[in-house]
Design goal:
two-stranded antiparallel ribbon, single chain, 153 residues, globular, 2 strands, 61% helix
Length: 153
């Protein structure tokens, strides 16, 4: 082990490449919902009901992109629109039971694929990945603080 400070740019580049490759490999098949669609649907499940503009901010996509996503989700019967009780001109989106099933199925499929990807790794590598998960989850949530948070798992 060395005492040198880690090169954060190099780590960021390697992490981005690895996460990108894992995500591409974890996409189950072309007939399933795409990652962006599942992400938006999962956010509606977790945070909803939501206005489309709020959802686009959470998902960090443009409003036209979110409109396309919501149109597809609605056509598939995975979300439904309802009037915004605080503003009659606006609407909220909420997840349907079919949407909940779709999120759970997508999570299960992706978990199974990633489990296969790490199945043959040595125990020490799996432990290293497990040790990094808290920090990676904080980064994924946009929390770049040094404070360690306990999760609600």
């Amino acid at each position: 082990m060395t005492d040198r400070t880690p090169d954060r740019t190099e780590i960021a580049a390697r992490l981005a490449a690895a996460v990108g490759r894992i995500n591409r490999r974890a996409r189950s098949d072309a007939a399933s919902l795409g990652y962006g669609i599942v992400s938006a649907l999962a956010t509606v499940q977790r945070e909803g009901p939501l206005r489309p503009g709020d959802l686009s901010r959470i998902e960090v996509v443009t409003k036209p992109t979110m409109t396309r996503i919501l149109t597809e989700l609605e056509q598939r019967g995975l979300i439904e629109r309802e009037a915004d009780p605080s503003d009659g001109r606006a609407f909220m989106v909420s997840i349907t039971p079919a949407g909940v099933d779709a999120v759970e199925r997508a999570r299960s499929d992706r978990t199974g694929i990633v489990a296969e990807l790490i199945a043959d790794l040595p125990t020490a590598d799996v432990q290293a990945i497990a040790g990094a998960l808290d920090a990676l989850e904080r980064v994924a949530q946009g929390d770049r603080s040094q404070e360690v948070h306990t999760s609600d798992r």
